Amino acid sequence: MRFGVLGPVTAWNDSGQPITLKGPRHRAVLARLIIARRRVVPVTTLVDDLWTDPPPGAVAAVRTFVAALRRALEPQRPPRAPAHLLVTRGPGYALHAESVDAWHFEEAVTSAATLVRLEEALSWWRGPAYADFAEEPWAAAERSRLTELHLRAIERQAETRLSLGLAAEAVPDLDAHVSDHPWREDAWRLLALALYRTGRQNDALTVLRRARTLLVERLGLDPTPELHQLEADILTQAPHLDHKPTDHVWARTTAAYDRTAPSSTRLESTVHLLRHLAVTGASGLQAAREHRLAAVTAAEELGDPDLIARVIGAYDVPAIWTRADDPQQAASIVAAAQRALRPDAHPATQARLLATIAIESRGTNATHAAHQAEQRARSLDDPALLAFALNGAFMQSFHTPGMAPTRDTIGAELVTLSSRNGLVTWEVLGHLIRLQARSALGDFPTADHHASQADHLAKRHELPLVDVFTTWYRALRQAGKTSAPEEEATYHQAASKLTGAMPGLEHGLLPLALLSVRLRHAQPAQTDDLDWGPHEPWTRPLVLLAQNRKNEAKESLHNVPTPPPNHLTEAMWCLTAQAAIALNDQETMNRAHTALKPAAAEQAGAASGLITLGPVAKYLEALKEPK
Asked: What ranges do the domains of the chain cover?
């Protein structure tokens, strides 16, 4: 069942045939429910929307319209059987629509759509949105929003054509567009640029002057600086206005691929592109994260189990941090991988899915999946697959404190395996793992070596995210070497590189780092109103103590949860221990001692490669043996 509102409101059945919707008020009810996007619309709201002066039988009339719509939309539904599409909920009705042309149109226009996808989306536009209800106040906001999306889609189509070197094809549509919508300055800019790139410099300048005349004389608007700058650039034939040959080759090739390759092949190729995008930096990582789940969802919709497994397992991007940037998406990827995991699949496919589960389950217990992935990978002659599986083993090596030696072994194997087989990103991961593990073990000369190796590879192969970790590591290395203010300044500098890079790492890290400096210098916690992020439950007792709110600190400490298994597990236990000692909470002291004892030889927090609270042994000595 599909619904259309990009023009007159209509509906089509699964065979693509239009459904008869009777009178205008029936269509108005349907349109009003579509605008609500599956939310309940009370009957009283429908009455107010359908009539300026509702008649006495308005509520009964609405129910009649709904009954007629149900018969039209679900003709096979047995009498008195509950409706599944147009349902009664509480005080009103909701339409459980799945396919609405406006929703698909919005998704296509707001995503990183290709030219083919944009042209397809524009073909769905059958006229003004909700054309039957142009004068209805309840439709005004949605009509306006969709109209703006439509105008932006035309401009995005032109932008894409220009990026593909198709300037001549962009001119006719843009010329009509600016005639109909002269206030769209971006459209004027695109038209002038398209004309310039087709060798029509004088026409491009004429267009810009026409735009200025219309904007100033008819609309009373001053042209933007961008339009003035474009005119100056065209006059001087600025080199940046020309389409770059490398861009042209890339754009033409991808456009041809998009037109000719089967959808399944395009999906797999998309994931391979996302892999490379993820290691290019903050914006690339964010874009890869946004589109990865969409690719998996699209593969599942095609219903090919092997394709689903390939699309999920192909995203073998090295992962170094144990807190997900987007936990909800990670859970969705894990669920999809579990659905795709079949006992009759090839061992390599099974290993990739299991490694995906182990990596995306970071912070939870998926050690069994990690072990199975590694077991299968070792039975195959595929170094890249083994590296992926080892990454899963690393992500599942935080389930108990004191596992730095295990992680160091994993990192050492990754470095050796990757350097022998030219797997650069996995080699970098191996060095970063060893940097963290050797820091946790207090072996900073070796950690320094791995930081330098990671930096060297990152610079040579353009992997900017590596610098985030090595910069923070060098801030950690200032511990005990300078004064507290100097250490804090170094962390502030390191934090500037982290902004927007990795949300799962960034949130609350700077306040935690500054707290680590204060505790090592025997100073109280910060009392400012800071965003501690996920670390708040373990820092709060110390903050309350610093504010002389002892009773609240006791209550907060009593409610503090067990730290989740991640890079900062030992650090959170040490913060808990510090507060418990200050409050003489023997029960919590005993818990902290038991938890920290396996990590007696490690530096608290240094497993992150980012902060340190000093030797765990110091905390154990202060806690003593449990009584």
From this structure: 2-117, 166-242, 262-361, 491-623
Quick one: average pLDDT of 134-145? Answer: 94
* Digit-coded pLDDT (tens) for 518-560: 999 999 999 988 999 999 999 999 999 999 999 999 999 999 9
308 neighbors 300 (Cβ within 8 angstroms): yes
Q: Is 4 helix (H, G, I), strand (E, B) or coil?
A: strand
Q: What are phi and psi of 95, to 5 degrees?
A: -105, 115
What predicted TM-score, i.e. pTM, was given to this entire model? 0.66
Tell me the CB-side half-sphere exposure of residue 532, using CA atoms within 13 A: 19
For residues 479 and 494, is the Cβ–Cβ distance under 8 A? Answer: no
H-helix or E-strand containing 99? strand 99-100
Phi, psi of 441 (to 5 degrees): -90, 5
Q: What is the SS3 string spanning 556-625?
A: HHHCCCCCCCCCCHHHHHHHHHHHHHHHCCHHHHHHHHHHHHHHCCCEECHHHCCCCCEEHHHHHHHHCC
36 token code pair: 């609500």
435: pLDDT strictly greater than 90: yes
Tell me the pLDDT tens digit for each residue of 346-375: 999 999 999 999 999 987 889 999 999 999
Rounded to whole angstroms, the Cα distance separating 1 from 18 reads 10
**What is d(CA 82, CA 166) in angstroms, rounded to the nearest whole number?**
53
For 79, other C-beta atoms within 10 Å of its C-beta total 4
How far the first Cα of the chain sits from its last, in Å, is 68
Please state, rounded to an integer, the average pLDDT across all residues of the chain: 90
pLDDT at 135 (0 to 100): 92
Q: pLDDT, tens digit, for every residue of 332-348?
A: 999 999 999 999 999 99
Q: Rounded to an integer, what distance in angstroms lies between the CA atom of residue 270 and that of residue 299?
A: 11
CATH number for region 166-242: 1.25.40.10
| Of 528, 526, 622, the residue nearest 574 (C-alpha) | 622
Does domain 2-117 sit in CATH 1.10.3720.10?
no
| Cβ contact 31:130 at 8 Å | yes
